[in-house]
Specification:
Layout: H1 8-23, H2 25-33, H3 40-50, H4 54-74, H5 77-107
Helix pairs in contact: 3-5, 4-5
C-alpha cells in the first residue's frame, strides 16, 4: 500500500512555510527547549534520588522504622518531628526509585 505523496506545488509551499518558520529564532528556541514531562529541576532531583545506593535506602528505612516505634512509645513532639524529617526523604527516595524502575521496564 503506497502512501499519498505531495505534488510539486505542495512540496514547494511546504518548503516555503518551513523556511519562514525556521527564520523565527524565538520559535526555534521554544521548539528546541520544549520538553515533555517533568521540569528540569524535578528531573535532576529524581535522578539524584534514584542514584542513592541501596545501603543508604536500607539505612533510611531502618532509621525511620526505629523512629516510628520510638514515637509510638514515648509520644513526644520531638520524636514525631524527627520521624517526619527522616520519613519524608525516605518515601521520596523509594518512590523515585520505584517510578524509575517502572518507567524503564515499560520502555523496554
Amino acid at each position: 500500500m503506497s502512501e499519498p505523496t505531495l505534488s510539486e506545488r505542495e512540496r514547494r509551499i511546504l518548503a516555503e512555510i518551513e523556511r519562514d518558520l525556521s527564520a523565527d529564532r524565538r520559535l526555534n528556541r521554544a521548539l528546541r527547549t520544549m520538553r515533555r514531562g517533568l521540569p528540569r529541576w524535578a528531573s535532576r532531583a529524581g535522578s539524584a534520588l534514584v542514584g542513592l545506593p541501596y545501603l543508604v535506602l536500607a539505612l533510611l528505612l531502618a532509621l525511620s522504622t526505629a523512629l516510628l516505634l520510638t514515637t509510638a512509645q514515648i509520644h513526644t513532639g520531638l520524636a514525631l518531628a524527627l520521624f517526619a524529617a527522616v520519613w519524608a526523604p525516605t518515601l521520596l527516595a523509594v518512590g523515585a526509585r520505584t517510578a524509575h524502575r517502572w518507567r524503564t521496564r515499560r520502555i523496554r
